[in-house]
Amino acid sequence: MKTTLFLAVLACVGLTVYGQKNDFFCDTCVSFATAIQNFVKEEIPLDQVEKDAQALCDLLPGDLKTFCEKDLLPEVEKIYNAVSSTSPQEICQDLELC
């Protein structure tokens, strides 16, 4: 279920992107961070969120998979720890993805 939510969020971003590549990275990061924020609110442990994020990246096609693995997966713990006090947009700006 959680992986499905991650996939749905990122697939929507991938399908609706029509702007610049930087907009794509920013929108994808914000969606990813928002999904993690929801998991934090549901009190889902970090190790489970990391597993679900990895499973999601494994399902994504092409550039989206590469971006997920290279830029988002290494930051899951940082995002997880920050979303309680920082907005997804601010987190992605801090990660220099927006």
Query: Could you report the average pLDDT, rounded to the nearest whole number?
Result: 84
Bulk shape: globular
Unreliable stretches: 15-19
Q: What is the helix content?
A: over 70%
User: How many strand units?
Assistant: 0
Q: What sequence of helices (H) and strands (E) makes up the elements? A: HHHHHH
Give a concise summary.
The chain is mainly α.
Question: What's the structural blueprint in terms of helices and strands?
Answer:
Blueprint: H1 2-16, H2 21-41, H3 46-59, H4 62-72, H5 76-82, H6 88-94
Helix pairs in contact: 1-2, 1-3, 2-6, 3-4
InterPro entries: Saposin-like (IPR011001), SaposinB_dom (IPR008139)
Protein name: Saposin B-type domain-containing protein
Keywords: Disulfide bond, Signal
Describe this structure in words.
The chain is an all-alpha fold and 98 residues long. It has helices spanning 2-16, 21-41, 46-59, 62-72, 76-82, 88-94. Helix 1 crosses helix 3 (46-59) and helix 2 (21-41) packs across helix 6 (88-94). The relative contact order is 0.18. Keywords: Disulfide bond, Signal.
